[in-house]
Amino acid sequence: MAALLPLFLPLLAPPTAGDPPREPAETVLRVLVHERWFAGWKYLQATAREFEAAHPGVRVEVLSSAGATGGAEKVKLVLAGGLPLDVTWIDVTEFAAWLREDVLLDLQPFFDADPTWRREDYFEPILQGMTGPDGNLYGLPSTFTPYVIYVNQTILRRAGVAPPRPDWTWDDLLAKCRATTRDLDGDGAPDQFGISLTQWMQALAPWIWQNGGRFLDENGRCALDEPEAVEAVEFLIRLLHEEKVASDDATFQNQLATGLFQAGRTAFYGPVGFWETYRFQHIPTEAEGGFDWDVVPLPRRRQAATSVALRFYVVPKVSRHPQLAYEFVRALAGDTMQRGLAAIGNGVPGLKRAAFSSAFLDPERPPASEQVFLDVLPTARFLPVTVDWTEIEKATQAVLEEAILLGRIPAREACERAAAIADRALARTEDLQRRPFVGAGWFSAAQLAGGLAVLALAAALLGRRRPRLARREARAAWLFLAPWAIGLGAFLLGPALVSALLSLSEWSPIQDLGRARWMGLDQYRRLLADGTFHDSLRVTFGYAALAVPLQLLTALGLALAANGAFRGAGALRTIFYLPTVISPVILGALWRQLLEPWLKDPATVLPAFVVMGLWTTGAQMLVFLAGLQAVDPRLHEAARVDGAGPLRRLWHVTLPALGPVVLLNLVVGLLNAFQLFAQPFVMTQGGPGNASRFLALYLYEQGFRFLRMGYASTLAWVLFGAVFVLTLAVLRGSRRFVHYAGAGR
Amino acid sequence: MRRWANRLLLVALAAAFLYPLAWMLSASLQPEGAALGRPPFYLPDGLHFENYPVAAARMGRIHRLVWNTTLLTAACILGQLLCCSLAGYAFARLRFAGRDALFLLVLATMMLPPQVLAIPQFLLFRRLGLVDTFWPLILPTVLGGAPFFIFLFRQYFLSIPQELVEAARVDGCRAWGVYWRIMLPLARPVIGTVAIFTFLATWNDFWAPLIYLNSEENQTLALALASFNQSYRVAVEWLMAGTSMVLAPCLLVYFLFQKVFLRGVRLSGAKG
Asked: Which is more confidently placed, A309 or B189?
């Protein structure tokens, strides 16, 4: 047993965060920015080599981020792992959270000390996006895009509608939409729309600003319930549900899957950014049998305004070479990289001379009016950085979608509820700062307690008085069990205790564990008032209630179909199992295309996931097959002799014999249903509203998006509790139905 | 007549289950940028096989990726087989105090959601200085991470006749000898099953490598694949070409070993 000790010993040692055993002779700058497949990768490499040539003794190590399925999380995990990182990039929507956690290096002193720094080389409105509340600059831009409207010029021409002027208004938009909405196939429902309306926070904000609205009032309260904001939401509801000239297909989660604009079935599309030109570049022109398209500024009301999607390069505070890191940020925002990004059509370069070059304003490449992306810049705005809007966006998404997407509640009610939710989140953030620290030692103690508990258990069971032979057998047994026991202590029990402690605290994973704050049972009390949590409970239980029995039936059906000894039975088994082999991330991409209309509607999104789940019952089918092959053929023979048909034999012979197998599959099915994560993560991100916000997805968002690892742990324990209680109930209930034929000793 | 109807039904079912794969292959042969926004039944304009070398090149140093993934998978398979069979044997054939309660504990650990454990495990490996190595991907899976496999081994070992064990005892075998000489050789079907399950899970695993592996030289295939999925521009054709390549070994392994697969799943532990 003493052999187990070394595994827990390192925990007793003081933390040695990030001290590498030996310092290499050269200085290594670790950079995590773009993805490797990304077309601009070669420019990134070129920039790194140039930098090395200019700084002898420095090596730039470029890491690859992991794409949208984990890109933003990847940077956080590198930081959470205490690994050295010198330069990275963040999205403007994440800026507030990073400021709140105080993990970004203020670059202003470096700019001030740098004689080669010329602020006017960059677009001033864009620099505002990476300026903290202190007025200091925290980074330099990669590429950005203001939100604009894409126009199908062919539809406008055919309808005899004048193309929008740069200063067009909401009324112009409404008029043009009315004139272009058509019912082409005469089924009474429009199939060509005026506008395909995007609805995430960055896309929603311009309407509110154009109407003179704002997001925070002078007291730092959420101002979404002010009349200007309410009116803006009312206008969108009017377009969608009263005038019925807008299509709602372009919510954030399915914007890639939908192709209303690409299919030539909407006159306008937006507000949306430059990234869509990549998708639309393959659209054939009107002369080639397709349609002509271009971009225009957003329509205005009391004033013109637009929002900006933006990524910028930053230096985390953990960087051990801040001066070099700063210089590399300058290099990334310099000519080689910025012209390269412009050439591949990645977005608008933040460096003015790159943006004004032919690399960006390419007359050969659609859209013709690329200039628009620069023209609207003076009207560009950002959400206030004092508040983490990604968290508020998620929390208010359901309410706003209820109003805008679904038209079920009036704008005023939605805005008031959204403002109240936002204010609660703001108050919580403030309250957190007043909480005491937990102390990192307690987490180590919890981990250690897990290991010690297993040791104590083993010792207690071994120490009982027994005859010598039995003692010897017990000792042998524990040696056999040792690997599992070590794992139980170190990787299951210990972490479970740490997680339990975390669920009573609040901690951001990119911070040191010493900064965790004690919340006590307030975390669990918060569950009572958390509407999103209630929705996710409903969703998870609803899904399980539908999916578990249906999957069980499907798996049984497939197993029966493939159980015969006929030719091709083996091939059938392989085929039925195939979808299980494909990673859920990839399957999600496929299903998103197939089930797209279902995924938009809150009433059908859960059934869509249920249907999808039927494809991946391969493992359960295998278990059934194994069970079927163990059914004694003599029983079937006897039943046949008694004149029982195939159905009766199934009911009276096969199923009773399968009892334990059904039970096993039921329990495994329950576990899988309650832990469903990858599919909603890839396909819907929880929408529409909260209609597919599964518990596992919600807790992931809390932990990694909003950096609330404490509350995420609280949710995880609720999940565990639900699964535990249900499994016990199933096992108890099954005693009456399941008979173990010849169950061992 | 009815036989034909049955056949037809089976063929239709098979087609439905083959569809995702067919779509994947079709998408992997589309010209650049064309696979998005197209109806799901779309046939490619010409066969763009060049997507495959392009995808391989964009994934990085492919030899390194294949080597890393193979190494990791092999380590997990060997570790799982050893640890799970040892535990399964103890639960099936050795008598000791608290055995049945402990076995229940094994099954109960299945219920701990991975989300509960992920972060504390990450903190543990960070403290041990093992982030950005393969250990965090191997140790928790191998040690204690596979209750279902322990269950499979236990059930299988329960079904092996006691006479064999007695005979080995007479020949002087102790617990280890019985396990190594009698039990393991007889358990080939379970070994195959556990090996294939582990192979599929490790080969395709994305989250654990995402969390733990950072350096260029430690990347795995699944991780490299994921980088195709960029925020606004999903390079579907490359993603699918890459996926097809990464998936091919899985299909091959499954197809070759599917017979073993079935015999290994034995659920009622009747002893002859």
From this structure: A309
Mean pLDDT within A552-568? 84
Residue pair A272/A147 in contact (Cβ under 8 Å)? The answer is yes
Q: Choosing among A390, A492, A664, which should be mutated to test the B contact, i.e. which has the most B CBs within 10 A?
A: A492
- Report the number of distinct structural domains present in chain A: 4
Reported confidence tier of residue A258, pLDDT bands at 50, 70, 90: low
Under a CB-based contact definition with an 8 Å cutoff, are residues A684 and A486 in contact?
no
Q: Looking at the domain assignment, is residue A429 inside a domain?
A: no
Mean pLDDT over the full length of chain A: 85
Answer yes or no: do A136 and A264 share one domain. Answer: no
CATH class given for the domain over B51-264? mainly alpha
Contacts of B10 in chain A (CB under 8 A): 561, 568, 572
Helix, strand, coil in percent for chain A, rounding step 5: 55, 10, 35
A42-101 confidence digits (pLDDT tens): 899 999 999 999 999 999 988 876 554 555 677 877 787 777 889 998 889 889 888 888
User: What was the pLDDT predicted at A41?
Assistant: 80
DSSP SS3 for A139:
strand
Domain locations in chain B as residue ranges: 1-48, 51-264
Closest CA in chain A for residue B24: A590
* Average pLDDT score over residue span B221-232: 67
A684 and A625 co-located in one domain: yes
Residue A745 forms part of a structural domain: no
Minimum-distance CB partner of B58 among A37, A495, A587: A37
Could you tell me if A159 and A113 lie in one domain? no
A392 assigned to some structural domain: no
Q: Output the pLDDT for position A65.
A: 66
Asked if A80 is an interface residue toward chain B (Cβ–Cβ < 8 A), one would say yes
The nearest CA of chain A is from the CA of B1 a distance in Å of: 17
- CA dist list (Å): A229 to A21, A182, A243: 56, 30, 20
Name the nearest CA neighbour of A216 among A393, A419, A42: A419
- Is the CB of A623 less than 8 angstroms away from the CB of B112? no
SS (H, E, C) B52-74: HHHHHHHCCCHHHHHHHHHHHHH
Confidence (pLDDT) at B77: 94
Is the minimum CB–CB distance between A728 and chain B shorter than 8 Å? no
Q: Is A692 helix (H, G, I), strand (E, B) or coil?
A: coil
CA–CA separation, A479 and A468 (whole Å): 17
Do A636 and A547 share a structural domain? Answer: yes
Q: Which residues of B touch A589 (CB under 8 A)?
A: 229, 234, 236, 239
What CATH number does residue A105 fall under? 3.40.190.10
Residues in B closer than 8 angstroms to A31, CB to CB, are none
Torsion of CA B141, B145, B149, B150, to 10 degrees: 130
Q: Is the preceding peptide bond at A190 cis, omega within 30 degrees of 0?
A: no
- A336 shares its domain with A458: no
Residue A414 lies in a domain: no
**Residue A577 contacts B where some CB pair is shorter than 8 Å:** yes
What residue of A is the nearest CA neighbor of B193? A622
Give me the mean pLDDT over the A127-155 stretch. 94
Let me know whether A316 and A286 are in one domain: no
Are the beta carbons of A740 and B268 separated by less than 8 Å?
A: yes
Q: Does A67 touch chain B (CB under 8 A)?
A: yes
Give the domain range for residue A643.
523-734
State pLDDT tens for residues A222-235.
999 999 999 999 99
CATH of the domain at A579: 1.10.3720.10
| A46 against B264, higher pLDDT | A46
* pLDDT given for residue A14 in this prediction: 38
- A471 and A577 belong to one structural domain: no
